[in-house]
Target: Hepatitis A virus cellular receptor 1 homolog isoform X2
Amino acid sequence: MGRSGNWGVISLRICLFLWLQPALSVSGPVIGSEGGRVLLPCTYSVTKGTITMCWGRGSCPASKCNNQIIRTDGREVTWKASERYGLMGSLTQGNVSLTITGLTGSDSGTYCCRVETPGWFNDQKVVVSLEVHEASEDSTAFATTSSLTNMALEYTEPIDLETKPEANTLPSIIMGLFLLVLLAGLLLYLYTWRNHPCRSTSNLGDSSLSALENALSPAPENVYYIKFENL
Model:
């Protein structure tokens, strides 16, 4: 009876332990090529705010991360083992997916994403398996072309191609308006100069002076000849 009671207590403890364990998510294998990069998915809900988390190599332990490779305080990365590791998603939105660049064969294996939810046995754990294959010539050429294309897109993305022609034609428009205003001002000046009162008075004075000179000029004398006949 005593032995049966002990087994009952042990079974109850095992059931209670398994019930208290948080759900463990296992992600399907992620496949990458040597020299390339991969994304290991991991997200959590931020309805109660951001939470500290870590990534580690191997299975998830009872707490923390084994062989830790990166860690955050919930809002930014506070430590990482190498520059090859990064969290490119929005940490404030709960996207803590791990990016690994410059893959090598030694990167193959199991990775643990642990979101350290406050409370006992509340941590969210995601286990991801990574398989790194040897890169072939075709895949290397494709990866190189893709990398160059991405670099070109990242370089040209900030340029607004629709506004560029407007920037080129704006000086021409300004110069055209300036010339139009200058021509209008010149025409207005000529019109005003032609109809200026001083010019009309000058013309009138010239006409009066000519008339006066003509009046003062001596008129030809009329000479009368009288013929006397002998009476």
